[in-house]
């Protein structure tokens, strides 16, 4: 008789329901692969009487997730409620303090409290695992903490918000407006409860802060992530980028430099023929560059019932097999405080602005760039309005600091009518 592993699942929405289905439908397979009989003891959600398409009658019910997390008949607390603070955090803390292992998909909670929760887990001999929190069903955490453990990671990049990638690709390929594409993403169930978390880059930033902590062995520092959402990107930018052989992606990039840990989540131009440039719809992609292995590209569903439940079950199976690896693939205490560095690694930039259509306007902009040490690679004045003209400039490699100096000088000239949109061109 295989030893029991008893789950307590808090949260029976998209992900929680998916996990219940896997445990119920694949019990023999899970036992064969882990050596343990994996069962659900108790569940919790806001509303008990709701048809979730899955039979919950054999499980105990707890209205309070904290009570669920500390039940005697729960070995692993599976937190699938969401929210960075409140009941989810309280229940996870209670489980860890009771020495129970925790599996969660809650990237918001981990981005804000992951360091403290990791330390709590280790202090109480528990493990905290969260594969589902970063790029959903893509097993990127397992790849970094196990398969690639023999590498020094040089750069990690990711398109990790399905909503934004869906919107940007539907605007480009489907000719939809931002609002139309947003509505489609909503209908597909991609959006967070607060969609600003998606389109503001915050959800993807949560994931990047976890990814970079695991990749570089640094303490989780979401506040150090440079965040910019996709609200400033227009169909004109998408068309101009395509015209130059690029696509626009909400791209997270983290790298360790001599100046510190750069973590940036912003709309970037990537080569249209690159794996990231080819990424369609709500799919996620993570690119890992290691000193031994070179570039690894992982692509897959970052959201949805099955893909996310798959990642949750991967963690449950590791616990069942007795994997006592700490949260980030190394002891939390060994995670170094990384000096946050603004993305100052030199890169080319795409600048779009509207200038007053009068003599010398372009010259003033060019002078502002030159005086800041920013070299122009391409410049295009396209179209005309009454007394203004849209201008596109692509720079040679420059630091963000120098570019910001040039943008401020441009504003001071009085010829810039609409504030320049600056998008980094990331070499991938
Ligand atoms: N949906 C996805 O594709 C996806 C992908 C990756 C990660 N996640 C993360 O997984 C978690 C769950 O996401 P979801 O899409 O399943 O959410 P959901 O909104 O579909 O379900 C949330 C569940 O938690 C319950 N819940 C919320 N607050 C509660 C409380 N205070 N007490 C008891 N129950 C409570 C709700 O009743 C519901 O059953 C979130 O942290 C989310 O960020 C979701
Ligand atoms: N709202 C998130 C869900 C998965 O984390 C996304 O669009 O990727
Ligand atoms: Na994942």
From TrEMBL:
Binding site for NADPH: 107
Domain of life where this protein originates: Bacteria
Entries under Gene3D superfamilies matching the protein: 3.30.70.260, Dihydrodipicolinate Reductase, domain 2 (3.30.360.10), NAD(P)-binding Rossmann-like Domain (3.40.50.720)
Keywords: Amino-acid biosynthesis, Methionine biosynthesis, NADP, Oxidoreductase, Threonine biosynthesis
A matching Pfam family: ACT
SUPFAM superfamilies documented for this protein: ACT-like (SSF55021), Glyceraldehyde-3-phosphate dehydrogenase-like, C-terminal domain (SSF55347), NAD(P)-binding Rossmann-fold domains (SSF51735)
Active site per database record: 207
Binding site for NADP(+): 10-17
Entry's EC annotation: 1.1.1.3
Domain ACT span(s) in chain numbering: 350-424
Pathway: Amino-acid biosynthesis; L-methionine biosynthesis via de novo pathway; L-homoserine from L-aspartate: step 3/3; Amino-acid biosynthesis; L-threonine biosynthesis; L-threonine from L-aspartate: step 3/5
PROSITE patterns referenced in this protein's UniProt entry, alphabetically: ACT (PS51671)
GO molecular function ontology, one term from the record: NADP binding
Database matches in InterPro entries: ACT-like_dom_sf, ACT_dom, Asp/hSer_DH_NAD-bd, HDH, HDH_cat, NAD(P)-bd_dom_sf
Family: Belongs to the homoserine dehydrogenase family.
Protein name: Homoserine dehydrogenase
Organism name: Mameliella alba
